[in-house]
Amino acid sequence: MSEHILFLTGKLAEKQLRGILAKMQPEFSYTVHQLGLKVAALMTADMIGRRLHDTFGADRIIVPGRCRGDLGGLSQTLGLPVERGPDELKDLPQYFGKAAHSFDLTEYSVKIFAEITDAPNLSVAEVIQRADYYRQNGADVIDIGCLPSTDFPHLEACIKALKHEGFTVSIDSLEAADLLRGGQAGADYLLSLHESTLWLADEVDSIPILIPEKHEDLASLDRAISQMQAKNRRFIVDPILDPIHFGFTRSIVRYHTVRENYPEVEIMCGIGNLTELTHADTLGINSLLLGICSELNITAVLATQVSSHACSAIKEADRARRIMHAAKANNALPKHISPELMALHDIAPHPYQLDEIKEFADQITDPSFRIQTSPEGIHIYNRDGLNSATNPFELYPKLGVDNDASHAFYLGVELARAQIAWQLGKRYTQDQALKWGCVVPDTANTVDVHIYKPANPQTTNDS
């Protein structure tokens, strides 16, 4: 027997909800119940508790995505699950598709080594502070970077302080003396050893990361691998990722070659050589590189946040590794798993077309403004009519808010958001900050819009 679902809605959205459900031809049976309010977005759990007297034999209830209140308590009162649906009715098909294909993003198979590149110039306290920040953004290992021809008298103090705070630590230098000091101070990893410095692995317990003796010299890397295998010691191999136009494509081939030759060895990829040295948004670069890591079973990446344009690179790598892991585990493309790798654009930026927005506008009988976007531009409407433009400045003279500063301010903020969303191909939802994937957390970009809104609440799409 199929599941029976009760959909609660308002007067304006009832017709549209019925139409969408009919087109979906769902496997479940359903009842659509109009709860006696005009705007579904204003529905609350308390209101449902007061007005809903029949659950129509439902196995669960789905309420509008913007429904406020304690749905858990309401579920207990009604004796069946009550869930929020999507904010937009047009997203109902995707909502039910996601319910059938949920992905676990708590798992990952790639460790992130986050390098503090200027550690010699920082105090021990500053190193700890930076390490805390990197760990909060997903780092598994804190990499202490040494600088050429720069004294680092507090190297040991940094490592010991980090270990005391529970961090896993690596020491990163091309100087054998720095690596030896770091290993003796308790570093868990040494970046990096080559054929001529393998003796360091006999002096400390740190796990070595092996690189070619000379750039692109895979034969020397093979010899280093053989020596470590003969000693039955754990190690990680890094064939070195090169920047674009300085051997990038050849370096990808090297990684593939090493994986083909050594199916079981642990491999590291220094993704900072691409994110730092390419003036392009790092979110896409990280997504692609972590996809390559997933295909080649690369188990560690070295990430940096030095350049201003790479200021969220560690967080991006963290989300990318989780999404790629989930896609691989489910034998799926990295699509429709999580929106966190999308900052500039959205999958479905315009849930409603212009003719649908015109139909909404014709039903409005109150003075509150609604703002929506379509491929044609920005649309704002209330009982006095619909106005459309691609530039918010063209709309202002038509809104009649010259003598209402707070209302004008509110509409200015919302229309600016709508313009940015329309220009980039992002989803705009009135009264909500634009979503920027993992680059900007939603909580960092939200305020109580009611501080600025006029007395009559502004409402959005009646979902």
Account of the 3D structure:
- The protein has 463 residues and is α/β, with parallel strands linked by helices.
- It has 3 domains: 4-100, Rossmann fold; 111-337, Dihydropteroate synthase-like (TIM Barrel); 354-451, no CATH class.
- Helices cover 37% and strands 15% of the residues.
- The chain has helices spanning 11-24, 45-51, 71-78, 92-100, 124-136, 155-164, 176-184, 200-203, 218-230, 248-261, 272-275, 282-295, 313-329, 354-363, 392-395, 405-424, and strands at residues 4-9, 29-34, 60-63, 82-84, 111-116, 141-145, 168-172, 189-193, 207-210, 236-237, 266-269, 300-303, 370-374, 377-382, 385-389.
- Strands 5-6-7-8-9-10-11-12 form an 8-stranded parallel β-barrel, surrounded by 5 helices.
- The longest helix is centred in the C-terminal third of the chain and has 20 residues, at 405-424.
- The radius of gyration is 28 Å and the shape is elongated.
Number of extended strands: 15
Instruction: Report the uncertain regions.
Output: 446-463
Quick one: overall form? elongated
CATH homology superfamily of the largest domain: Dihydropteroate synthase-like
- N→C terminal distance: 29 Å
User: CATH topology of the largest domain, what is it called?
Assistant: TIM Barrel
Q: Multimeric state of these chains?
A: single chain
Main beta-sheet strand count, sense and barrel state = 8 strands, parallel, barrel
Strand content: 15-25%
Whole-number average pLDDT? 92
| CATH architect. name of the largest domain | Alpha-Beta Barrel
Helix and strand composition category: alpha/beta
In total, the number of domains comes to: 3
Q: How many helix segments?
A: 16
For the largest beta sheet, what order do the strands appear in spatially? Answer: 5-6-7-8-9-10-11-12
Q: Would you state the CATH class of the largest domain?
A: Alpha Beta
